[in-house]
# Entry
Amino acid sequence: MHHLTAWSAHDTGVIISCALALLVIVVAISLAKLPPFLAILLGAIVFSATTGLDMAKAIASFQAGAGHLLGDSGLIIALGALLGGMVAGSGAADRLVTALLSPGGRPLSARALPWCVAVAAMLVGLPLFFEVGLVIMLPLVLGVARTARQPVLRIAIPALAGMTVLHALVPPHPGPLIAISALHASLGTTLLLGLAIAVPAVVLAGPVYGNFLSTRPEYRTISTAASANFSSPGNVRQERQPSLAAAAMTILLPVALMLARTASELCLPRNGMAAHILNTVGEPFMALLLSVFFAVIVLGWLSRQPRRETGRTLHDSLPPLAVLLLTIGAGGGLKQVLLSGGIAGTISKIAESSSLPLVVLAWLIAVCLRQATGSATVATSTTAGLMAPLLATMGLSSPQTSLVALSIGAGSVFFCHVNDAGFWMVHELFGLTLKQTLMVWSVLQTIVSLTGLALCSAIWVFLAS
# Structure
């Protein structure tokens, strides 16, 4: 790394201003109940004012950062929502989960249920946002727990773990894709490493933690009374549900296309026609676009779903994105304002003077931003933007860059609490108290985060040795 100038009063001021901005964001979201978009914008203004950054320049930086991030990722996120809408609305997710939990029509043993629920949640979570996946899985979780006479949380926690790990670590979810783009990481390498890290994280945060928590008396009797009338949007007439093969192919198609691109880079001549085709269809935007058209044809038209109903499913998938895209854009704007205020140079000095590996430093920054904003995607996008200038000077290998991206994803889910939409969703749907929600959701997320950090650090040390 090239030599950096000594620590200055300006660097101290930048750190203090950044901490103050994050505090303002936390207060604005948790106490003032402002939308995250407005809270993040307010935090950016506070940072600009306290660092002496010209307000006109700060506003221009915010707009440029938001526009750049949404230009890179907005369409990909929209395509992901369309794919998720088709998977949910057609009954494909219901079909797949039911088949996994009752292979050959025979119910699984009580000991195997949490493990199979975790696998089912990971498959359902591949193309779906966490909130949509939870809505689909909830009636199935309740039905399985009731039929098998198991504590609800013993079945529910593996489902929560399977979906949240995929959301944090595995493309095509927005956070990982944004980190890959910002850090110029290899999509295939990040996908493979993300899956390798995701499996042990799901095991520890899902079946292992679920079995532990569900044995405690105050959690064993949870009956989810608040969600008794909650139904899945995927409940469609049986005769119009897609086949199991069609459901599995649709859910796995985008990941398969992305992995095919990586395989072509490793095994095929770069100038060949096959490599060109696989490189094109495996690019995230194209992989999701092809998967959406595949879903429309296979899950919609060929499953005898009226074309008007298919169109309505696609149309209804997009409006909920407005809040998410605004929040993500605000995160990109905040990142650009922080860069304009000199935060990148300060982070570089911290990295140079500390003995922390880059994966740990990136994880810590993501943790701070997640605690402030309540959004894993905003924490991921902002941290990746802050780390990108530093990584560009270091000549890291492809796996190392991917590990930094994954450590950011792991940090983005550390101890999610009252400023997190998922926290309140779990609280309401499972009829939990505040303390119970902290134990079920916040601790689960922390296990995922620490497992991700530990595995990223272990692989980092192995590569450096």
